[in-house]
Automatic annotation (TrEMBL):
Alphabetical UniProt keywords: Membrane, Transmembrane, Transmembrane helix
Name of the molecule in the record: DUF58 domain-containing protein
Domain DUF58 as annotated: residue spans: 201-365
UniProt signal peptide: none
UniProt KW NAD keyword: no
Statement: the UniProt record of this protein carries the keyword Membrane: yes
Parts of the chain that traverse the membrane: 9-27, 33-53
UniProt source species: Chryseobacterium oryctis
InterPro entries the record matches: DUF58
Length: 440
């Protein structure tokens, strides 16, 4: 009986019976009608109960989950329900989704024909890494009578980890196949010169750069021959992620740290596709989660596991410690992408000497963030004095960010200044630009 539930239709019918009894108090001939309706209501409820509970496996259902959730992305959760009853049913699906989503009004209603399957899905978008626990898949089934419902429960206690964003890796893979972006909203990159990695000597065809003509090979073969070069491979690319307090700022539900982690995952995939070596480390009071730069087959999985297990804190990041660890652990010249955030020029000046120290031996790219809320204030047409003040303050902060970019460029440090939601594309674009220009 614990799976038996009375529906609103049953109680509405009882209310009608009650009204008839009230009328019977004034008009006695309504008493017989009230008794008959009450008896029919009881018999109908019994018949409805027998229809639903006479068959043990009236429906079969399963929740189809992915192996893991992709943090910050839309993850489909599929449900398959089969109706084994001989009549059409109305099903109410209440899935006990993880508490992190704080969705307390989850309800899906479906009508399923006898002997048929109903296959549908809903979307979950996690905003933090970690373990996500699913409870019961509850399905409440009604017959066409609709007086009572029977509850079915399936797949209790499923558990899924939420990893850094991996769903869109195939989309970014196109960026590794070609060295120029052809997608909308992304600038093209003009190649400057040649890399120094020689590939082969081939016969000249119209359109080849005449500056690459190999005159020795031409004299031997009596045909114009040119040198062909390829992009340099096996270059070391390190991603350094600041896990300090400045990375706690949230935008659209994700912190700057999680945006950086997702970008590191996407960029690592592209780096490995391009034949380079990807490595990473995190830092705050000390450096952690160190992954040496490599391009072996299991490198992306190793980076993914390290990103998943990043623990955050509210400490002030120690750039001096970072400089020392980079100096002694990264011996060869590498491309270093540093994910951090500077809100003021004073904050940059406190750490500038350490950044300059890293840039002496490596190609350093500092990745920091635009405040999307300030951008909204800047581009908003003010309607009153308060909004004018807000716009002026926002423009002051934006101007200070531009001063930060100029100060870094003065010492040969490259920058990526981007909105959090555009981070993946912008850092991949900067990496491919550096590869195309051959400045590493």
């Amino acid at each position: 009986m614990k799976n038996l539930y009375l529906n609103n239709r049953f109680f509405y019918t009882l209310i009608c019976v009650g009204v008839l009894y009230v009328f019977a108090f004034f008009f006695p001939f309504f008493m017989v009608i009230a008794h008959v309706v009450l008896l029919l209501c009881a018999l109908t409820a019994i018949v409805d109960y027998l229809l639903l509970f006479n068959q043990k496996n009236g429906i079969l259902a399963q929740r189809i989950l992915p192996e893991k959730l992709s943090n910050g992305d839309e993850n489909p959760v599929k449900i398959d329900i089969k109706n084994n009853y001989s009549f059409k049913i109305n099903a109410k699906i209440i899935d006990e989704i993880p508490f992190q989503f704080q969705k307390r009004d989850f309800l899906i209603q479906k009508q399923i024909e006898p002997g048929k399957n109903s296959f549908f899905q809903y979307i979950l978008e996690p905003k933090e890494r970690g373990e996500y626990y699913f409870g019961n898949l509850n399905i409440y089934v009604e017959s066409p009578i609709g007086f009572v419902s029977k509850r079915f429960q399936f797949q209790k206690d499923a558990n899924l980890p939420s990893y850094p964003s991996f769903i869109h890796l195939r989309k970014y893979e196109l960026m590794a196949i070609q060295s120029e972006f052809m997608l909308g909203g992304i600038k093209k990159i003009r190649k400057l010169g040649h890399t120094m990695e020689f590939e082969q000597i081939k016969e000249y065809v119209p359109g080849d750069d005449i500056r690459t003509i190999n005159w020795k090979a031409t004299s031997k073969t009596n045909r114009l021959m040119v040198n062909q070069f390829q992009d340099e491979k096996s270059q070391r690319i390190f991603m350094l992620i600041d896990t300090g307090r400045t990375m706690k700022m949230p935008f659209n539900g994700l912190s700057l740290l999680d945006y950086s982690i997702n970008a590191t995952m996407a960029l690592s995939h592209i780096i490995l596709k391009k034949g380079d070596r990807a490595g990473m480390m995190t830092f705050s009071k000390k450096t952690e989660n160190k992954i040496a730069a490599d391009n072996k087959s299991g490198q992306l999985k190793k980076i993914s596991e390290a990103l998943y297990n990043i623990n955050t804190n509210f400490f002030e990041s120690d750039f001096n410690r970072l400089y020392q660890d980079v100096k002694y652990s990264i011996n060869q010249r590498s491309l270093i992408l540093l994910f951090t955030n500077f809100e003021t020029l004073d904050a940059l000046n406190r750490q500038l000497k350490y950044l300059r120290g890293i840039a002496k031996n490596h190609l350093l790219v500092v990745v920091f963030f635009k405040n999307s809320e300030l951008q909204t204030l800047i581009h908003k047409n003010p309607e009153n004095m308060q909004e004018i003040y807000d716009e002026i303050i926002a423009e002051k902060f934006e101007f200070e960010k531009k001063l930060i970019i100029q100060e870094l460029r003065k010492y040969g440090i490259y920058t990526v200044y981007t909105l959090p939601e555009n981070l993946n594309i912008d850092v991949i674009n900067k990496y491919l630009e550096i590869k195309a220009r051959g400045i590493l």
